[in-house]
Amino acid sequence: MTEHRQATVFDVAKEAGVSTATVSNVLNRRNVPLTEETIRKVEEAAAKLGYRRNVMAASLSRRRTYEFGLLLPGFGGYYGLFAQQMERTAHAYGYHLSVFSTDLDSQIEKRLLEKLLERRVDGLFCHGLAMSHDSVRRMVGDGTPILFFNCWNELKELAIGTVNLNVYQACVDAVLHLRAQGCRSFYYYGHRRAHATDEQRKAGFREGLRLLGDTYPFDMIDAGDIAPEKLPGWLAERSEGTEPAGVICFDDWKAFVCMNRLIEQGYPVPDRFKIVGINNEFIAEHSYPGMTTFNIPYEHQADISFRWMLTHLGEQAKLKTKGDAQPVRLPEPGGEVKIPLALVERLSSAKRN
């Protein structure tokens, strides 16, 4: 075959040494007697030739592959740790998990989409930044259920549901925590490249200020708009006369940069500035001063995600096998589960002596 001609059922039948009717029966999962060897030969031939129907059987009665896909924007920080926990959870439920990263590259996304469609995974777990609207529509149209995590955009409408970390409430809690520690002005150091994830943090920051009631000086700055070495001067200028100032950062890495630049330029932490991050990365505990942050319950988020997907697929037997005897109480299809983050207090936000 040339690389420009799409494979047909006739090509698959010839490669597998079976009839076209048998190919159709295998690929359409028809309830007819088929040996495992025949199924294997047809599926291997289809994979070798790159054959795939545009619309595969979407019925819950179709034969399972017992494989899920996990699509991430990258592998650093939270993404890698979440992927690790998802793999553990998949194993516990008797599934294989194929993990992919788009690296926010449309060409990589396109290739991965084709690969996922070819593999006919039973379902896809997808971060809200990892796939475009068109790709999601194509996956759903092909019969693949998608469960999003950390998604706050219109893509949610196409999913069976969404499992989101409640970073909005974490930022509300961060503002209230910093005020309780004596802060008289508040600042957010963000990362708008994270799109809706950053917007959730900003919204929580604003809500925290509203709940304080009084008028406190505040401002927001994005990492893309200021060089790290200039951040201390920016914070010092705006908070002068309203010390100590509280700084809530997009994540622990932004908090680490902020805290170290402040200390490097002679601004004491936590006396002059109090810092709060999010994610409870390794650096948060082992930096000096130790960084106040919010812990992410990876195991809980992963287990809720799998329970929701398996419930949607009608795989209650898998839930019972793992020991989940209680019925899974989940929102209506297309709904959202919010996973709370727990404040971890460390020296970076301690009260002044």
UniProtKB/TrEMBL annotation:
Keywords, comma-separated and alphabetical: DNA-binding, Repressor, Transcription, Transcription regulation
InterPro entries, A to Z: HTH_LacI (IPR000843), LacI/GalR-like_sensor (IPR046335), Lambda_DNA-bd_dom_sf (IPR010982), Peripla_BP_I (IPR028082)
Keyword DNA-binding: yes
Domain HTH lacI-type span(s) in chain numbering: 7-62
Molecular functions (GO terms): DNA-binding transcription factor activity; transcription cis-regulatory region binding
Record-linked CDD domains: HTH_LacI, PBP1_LacI_sugar_binding-like
PANTHER family in alphabetical order: HTH-TYPE TRANSCRIPTIONAL REPRESSOR PURR-RELATED, LACI-RELATED TRANSCRIPTIONAL REPRESSOR
Protein name, per record: LacI family transcriptional regulator
